[in-house]
Amino acid sequence: MDSSRKVNSLYPIQEPLFPRKRSRENLDRFIPDRESMDIGYANAVLTERRTGKENPVESSASSVAYQKLLAETLNMNRRILTFKSKPPAPIEPIPRALLSPPSHKAKSRPRRHISQTAEKILDAPDLSDDFYLNLLDWGSNNILAIALESTVYLWDASNSSTSELVTVSDDDGPVTSISWAADGRHIAIGLNNSCVELWDSISVKLLRKLKVHHERVGSLAWNKEILTTGSRDGNIINNDVRVRSHIVQTFLGHQEEVCGLKWSASGQQLASGGNDNLVFIWDRSVASPNAHWLHRLQDHTSAVKALSWCPFQANLLASGGGEGDDTIKFWNAHTGSCVNSVNTGSQVCALLWNSHERELLSSHGFTENQLILWKYPSMVRLAELSGHTSRVLYMTQGPDGFTVASAGDETLRFWNVFGIPEVAKSAPKQSRMPFSPKYYCIR
């Protein structure tokens, strides 16, 4: 072999762009490109190795020296049938970047700030510390009504003005419940003498007085033209305020005072809670004057005042038990089954759902006297709002769906717990303004 022979350069062999055959059909040997190989060199090496015997004869010293020189000259320390350079990367017919659009990370919504201090505080002297009463309600007219002993005051949230609606006599009072109608004009007032008064808040006139029970009326709930009343006598009565014979239906089931009433958003189901530790769900479609309950729920071990229908799941009802029970329970109103129960550690006085998020707000009495914001359905505590020094017995939500008012310890506190209203007038935080029974204005 001529040692001066130049080694031909090797060109990479590209793999054809055809699908491979199955292993049984792929029987052809690999045939390399002859132009890119040293055929003479390969033949010499293979021939020499194959002509040796099982026990080869040792080569002479001169032969060994010659083989060494030949190897150095022809660069025999090479592997056979290998590329001299790496093959180029295969060319992709379509770039991968074009096969899938670039992924953009979803913008995470910033976590809202929940202030743990009240935005505003109003004095509410002579506010009754009675678990079974309902003395606070915020109407669709953005006017908040609160009963202090025998007087009902109206606080206009738009201009922070206070006025007196009515002061009942000592024989009729004190006031035991209040509730705005959906129109934001008419308001019902339950009294200790077992009567209910219906007032026009604009003209400040008594429209009607209903004698419906035998004992005090501690709970009220509107369903369009129907005013539902609950009493210490254990009865629940539907009153059509448009007609002379106003009693149209009676719900009999509670054996003790009815302290909680809430109609569902559809107006078809009524939830009631009582001092007998029971929760009832009633169906309005039952035409009987003395309707039977749809579900009788008896898992609570204390009085049930706190009731709230879920705004994003129509058949879900939340209820809260009093001292000794301390639980919030969630009910399937269709089946009557308890789907969850959470021990809060203190007396549950009121419940409000957040209409903007899947959250629930609870107010508490013994022993924490606080408000707790819960994430639903995990029931993780998102915030604990402190400030009240005694039981937070009353709680209501403003028409904006953001602001919550709570009452206890003779104060009325406002919280932006559900978020900050889009249009809100700036007001000094922790401002303290009294309800003034004498001058009917905020000083």
UniProtKB/TrEMBL annotation:
Keywords: Cell cycle, Cell division, Mitosis, Repeat, WD repeat. Residues 104-114 have a biased composition (Basic residues). Residues 122-415 form the CDC20/Fizzy WD40 domain. One of its GO terms (biological process) is anaphase-promoting complex-dependent catabolic process. WD repeats lie at residues 168-200, 251-283, 385-417. Residues 92-114 are annotated as: Disordered. GO terms for molecular function: anaphase-promoting complex binding; ubiquitin ligase activator activity. One of its GO terms (cellular component) is anaphase-promoting complex. The keyword RNA-binding does not apply. The keyword Cell cycle applies. Belongs to the WD repeat CDC20/Fizzy family. PANTHER family: ANAPHASE-PROMOTING COMPLEX SUBUNIT 4-LIKE WD40 DOMAIN-CONTAINING PROTEIN, CELL DIVISION CYCLE 20 CDC20 FIZZY -RELATED. This is Putative transcription factor WD40-like family.
